[in-house]
Specification:
Distance between the termini: 43 Å
CATH superfamily: Alpha/Beta hydrolase fold, catalytic domain
CATH class: Alpha Beta
Helix content: 25-40%
Order of helices and strands: EEEEHHEEEEHEHHEHEHHHHEHEH
CATH topology: Rossmann fold
Number of domains: 1
Oligomer: single chain
Radius of gyration: 20 Å
Strand content: 15-25%
Strand order of the largest sheet: 3-2-13-12-11-10-8-9-7-6-5
């Protein structure tokens, strides 16, 4: 792992770039952090910054377009998977939760995900607004669960409906979750064990692989948002950080009706390079599995090719806003740029040169709100 140091600078430098009509625009900006105090309440008092760049230079990253490893039956695989899931009624259930808040309504939500299994979440919207609202569907980072509804007020406070999806099986690392991962028959029949974590659960069989269930849940979360009475189904955005960013890319590639995709420092992209470049978790779960299962390398990466963000990005056409930390040794910049450069729709990138996996933090949250405001208002 790269060495790190503690830093409490009061300014965040970042570069923004956008690509429209084949042109890219970049701007270096400084954002006073004290302007953010009291707004999002998520900035730590001390910022951790990676000490050194380790990946390609920015100029090379902007042109990095590696070949995609895509199985011939990729589209058929996902068409069948989603058809099977949609045989179950979406069955959205909402139960109001009273946290004593005055300006938003919070609902304990659930819907039918993979194989009709109940997926938990939170649905939040501004109070006393009757009109149908654009909706932001958010997916969580690795290891975390949905937590409490009052922790997720940003988008409702900005005037949007908001649906947060709990991640099946996760929720024991940094925030609790409430959705179990029910083991499918394919996984029971595959065998092969797994490294601790989720990255290698069912990895010897694409139908049994853990992220087949997660990505299916995520597409169904968009179906659930469309079914909500107070949501404008023509204006739905998907977003998330790290694992959540990778999931949002998958959904944008699988559901052509999604209106915008906002992945921050996305995980689950360009698996082969990530496992060869870094030894940090969660990608290290794959590397460690292959240290033991030396004869399974080809089979493992064959499975992962059905879940690589590069292949979903190439199928996504809605407007997107990415972000990347150039010192990120969890989701390396080249893996993020590989997905960004393959992305088929209009795209913008925010670059944070001196940040690691924390990326742009609150500054990027403001960028997301600005992006959605320009798109929807």
């Amino acid at each position: 792992m790269s060495p790190s140091k503690q830093r409490s600078d009061s300014f965040y430098p970042y570069v923004s770039s956008s690509t429209k009509g084949g042109c890219t625009r970049e701007v270096l900006s400084l954002h006073p952090s004290h302007h953010l105090k009291g707004l999002l309440l998520t900035r730590p008092s001390v910022q951790t910054v990676q000490m050194a760049l380790f990946d390609f230079p920015l100029e090379q990253l902007q042109k990095y377009l590696p070949p995609r490893d895509e199985p011939q039956d990729f589209d058929a695989f996902w068409t069948e998977t989603l058809q099977e899931a949609r045989e179950f009624p979406i069955g959205v259930q909402l139960e109001r939760v009273d946290y004593g808040l005055k300006t938003v309504d919070i609902f304990d939500a659930s819907f039918a995900g993979y194989a009709g299994q109940r997926i938990r979440g939170w649905y939040i919207r501004p109070r006393d607004i009757q009109e149908k609202l654009p909706c932001v569907v958010e997916y969580l980072g690795y290891g975390g669960g949905r937590g409490l509804g009052l922790e997720r007020l940003l988008y409702a406070s900005a005037g949007y409906a908001y649906l947060l999806m709990d991640t099946r099986g996760q929720g024991g690392a940094w925030q609790f979750g409430d959705t179990p991962d029910m083991v499918p028959l394919e996984l029971a029949e595959t065998g092969g064990g797994q490294h601790p974590g989720f990255m290698t659960r069912g990895i010897l069989n694409s139908r049994a692989y853990y992220y087949r269930r997660v990505f299916t849940d995520a597409v169904r979360a968009v179906d659930a948002a469309r079914a909500l009475e107070g949501v404008d189904s023509s204006r739905i955005a998907v977003t998330g950080t790290s694992q959540g960013g990778g999931i949002s890319l998958a959904v944008a590639g699988l559901d052509s009706g999604v209106g915008a995709c906002l992945p921050d420092v996305p995980f689950l992209c360009h698996f082969k390079r990530a496992t060869e470049l870094i030894d940090t978790h969660p990608y290290a779960e794959i590397s460690n599995y292959l240290r033991i299962h030396r004869d399974k390398l080809e089979r493992v990466f064959q499975t992962l090719s059905y879940f690589d963000g590069l292949n979903f990005a190439a199928r996504a056409h809605c407007p997107t806003l990415f972000s990347v930390g150039l010192m990120d040794d969890v989701c390396p910049p080249s893996t993020v740029y590989a997905a960004f450069n393959h992305y088929a729709g209009s795209k913008e990138m925010r670059v944070y040169p001196y940040n690691g996996h924390e990326g742009g933090g609150e500054v990027q949250a403001l960028e997301r709100l600005k992006f959605l405001g320009q798109l929807w208002e």
